[in-house]
C-alpha cells in the first residue's frame, strides 16, 4: 500500500493530492485479538523455548493479518528477539509495528488504562507505568516481561519531578537484573535540543552539547544516566537524538488543515528559525531497527534527522501547496509574525537555538538510506495517503 501511495504521489499534481483524506489514521491492520495473542504467548512460555516459539507465534500473527510472508530478521543472529518499550507513544508504536512485522515479540508501557486496553487489542502486551501518579511503577507481570527482553527502548521524556530519567529512577534495579540475564541492548530516544545554540553551524555527535533551557538540560542528564547505566551494567546503550518528528496524522499538513489560524506560541517561535531539524517517523524506525539488529555492542549516540534542515515557514508553504491550489483560499498563516504574548516567550531559548544537525554517522555506521531525505517527499507521501510505518 505504501509503495502504491508513493507511486501516486510521484505522478500526481496538486489536484490529486487535494483529494487525500482529511487526516491519516494511525490504525493498522494486524488482525489478531489480545486474547488470542496472550494465549499463544502463554503457550510459548509454558512449552517451547521463547525464541523457538516466537517464530511460530509470529508466523501465525502475520498469516492472520493477511500481510504475506515476513522475513525473520529479529535479532542480530537472525532469530526473533523480544523488546520491552517504555512509553508506547507515537514513534514507539510505529517502531513496535515495524519490529513485530520483522518477527520481534513486543511488550510496552503507557500511562492510562484506556490506552493499555487499546494496545492489548492490537496484540501488544501492555502494562501501566506512570511514576508521576503516586509512583505507579511496573507490576510483577511487567517486571517479568522486562526480565525476558533482549532489548529495551525508552521513549519516556524526562520530567521535572525526577532527579533523573523516570525509567531509571523507578526501575534501575530491575534493569540491572535484566542486564545480568538476556538483555543485550538499550535504545534511548532523546532530542537534538540537547545541542543548544550553534548560531546555525553544523553539529555532529562528537561535540559537547550545551543545552540552553531546563528541559534540554534534563534531557542531556537523562542521556548521561542511560550511557552510564550501560557502562555499569555491561549493556550496549544507544542514544538517538531525534529531530522534530512528523508522519501520518502528525505533520505540517495537519497543522495547515486544522489549526493554522491559531498557531501555538511554540509553533510561532519555531517559525522564525532559519534551520529546523526534522525526521519522518518511518526513518526513525528504520534507524532504530538497524541499530538493534546491527549486533553492535558499544554505546553510541546517533543523530536521527533528515538531510534538509529547512525553515518551518518553507515546510508550511509546501504543505499548503500540496493541499490547496492558487485559486483556493488557504487559511491565514502567521508564520512570520509573533503575536504580542508570545514575544516574551522568546525567553525559551531552546526554541530559537539555531543549529544544523548532521546525520553523517547513521549513514556511515548503520548504512542508512533515508526514505525521506527531505520534508518534501515525506509530506508528499502523507498527502497521497501513505500510512507507513503504521500500516
Ligand atoms: N515530538 C517531537 O518532535 C520530538 C522531537 C525530538 C524528541 N522527542 C522525544 O522523542 C521521544 C518520542 O517522541 P514521541 O513524540 O513519539 O513521544 P510521545 O508520542 O509523546 O510518547 C511518549 C511516551 O512516553 C510516555 N510518557 C510520557 N511521559 C511519561 C512519564 N512521565 N511517565 C511515564 N510515561 C510517560 C507516554 O505515555 P502515554 O502513551 O500514556 O501518553 C508515551 O507512551 C519522546 O521522549 C519525545 O520527548 C520528540
Automatic annotation (TrEMBL):
Carries keyword tRNA-binding? Answer: no
Q: Does the keyword NAD apply?
A: yes
Residue span, NAD-dependent epimerase/dehydratase domain = 89-304
**What highest taxon heads this organism's lineage?**
Eukaryota
Q: PANTHER family recorded for this chain?
A: EPIMERASE-RELATED
Keywords of this entry: NAD
Q: Which family does it belong to?
A: Belongs to the NAD(P)-dependent epimerase/dehydratase family.
Q: What is this protein called?
A: NAD-dependent epimerase/dehydratase domain-containing protein
Q: InterPro entries from the entry?
A: Epimerase_deHydtase, NAD(P)-bd_dom_sf
Its lineage opens with: Eukaryota, Viridiplantae, Streptophyta, Embryophyta, Bryophyta
